[in-house]
Amino acid sequence: MIVLDRVTRVFNSRDGDQIVALRDVSLEIAANEFVTLVGPSGCGKSTLLRIVAGLALPTTGEAAIAGAPIREPRPETGIVFQAPTLLPWASVLDNVLFPLRMMHRMDSGSADKATALLKLVGLAGFEKKSPRELSGGMQQRVAICRALVHEPDILLMDEPFGALDALTREEMTLELLRIWSERPKTVLFVTHSITEAVMLADRVVVMSPRPGRVAEIVDVGAPRPRSFDNEADPAFHEATQRIRQLIFGQKHASSSRASS
Ligand SMILES: Nc1ncnc2c1ncn2[C@@H]1O[C@H](COP(=O)(O)OP(=O)(O)O)[C@@H](O)[C@H]1O
Ligand SMILES: [Mg+2]
């Protein structure tokens, strides 16, 4: 479904230096696969996501969806950015409906559908509010509804739960898994949390520090459906330990299990 072939992305910094954000990243993501992306800050995770979203182009190499090079954003892709990006003048409901309006796909059931999504993320009754009246975490949940409303075949999420408190974050993780199992789609999900990465993914792509490369792709063998009770599951433990080793090095791995 998504194929990156030796994607390199170079930025020119303000003082004239060249920043290699991604170097020779090759990755294939199958249709309806759930892939998470972890790695240190600045290793190019957001850049990689923006390339798949059609919001940035590779400097060299090729990124394609279903065999077609990605040159611009495609309407069938849903995106959740790191910070919520709602239209401040539109109501919560109209923000969720925005992709359907853009795609001229509004119909008599659209408002009900958006309302149902808002209910799903705990925002029933907030339809007429302005984004200004919502906390950051609530705004992010609206942005997640907006990314889902047109039932995208590809869902790209850049640390979408970063602004949420720990409890809401676990709830949203499980909710996302439920949505994905009911309506399968190809998901590429960036996170800082190793636990979250393992809980969600079929495969975890671990990136190395800048210039960002794929250090290793870790298969998560744990069965589905999953819950946070499964964290003691050997397959979970094994995947988590391997990712820790890759990110922190061997010694640190065994001593830092508690801090995900
Ligand atoms: N538009 C840009 N102009 C210049 N440098 C950028 C730009 N976008 C990202 N970078 C640089 O590329 C590197 C990777 O950034 P990013 O993809 O945001 O990393 P991550 O999401 O993993 O933290 C960083 O060093 C960042 O400063
Ligand atoms: Mg980022």
What is the helix fraction of residues, given as a range?
A: 25-40%
Bound molecules: adenosine-5'-diphosphate, magnesium ion
CATH topology of the largest domain: Rossmann fold
CATH class of the largest domain: Alpha Beta
Task: Give your account of this protein's structure.
With 260 residues, the protein is of the alpha/beta class. The chain has two domains: 1-73 and 154-160 and 184-260, Rossmann fold, CATH 3.40.50.300; 77-151, P-loop containing nucleotide triphosphate hydrolases (Rossmann fold, 3-Layer(aba) Sandwich). The protein is 34% helix and 23% strand. The chain has eight helices and ten strands. The strands form two sheets. It has a six-stranded mixed β-sheet, with helices on both faces. The protein has a four-stranded antiparallel β-sheet with strand order 2-1-4-5, covered by helices on one side. Strand 4 (60-65) and strand 5 (68-69) form a beta hairpin. Helix 2 runs parallel beside helix 4 (136-148). The longest helix has 17 residues, at 166-182. It is globular, with a radius of gyration of 19 Å. It starts with a strand and ends in a 5-residue tail after the last helix. Bound molecules: adenosine-5'-diphosphate and magnesium ion. Residues 45-46, 82, 158 line the site of magnesium ion.
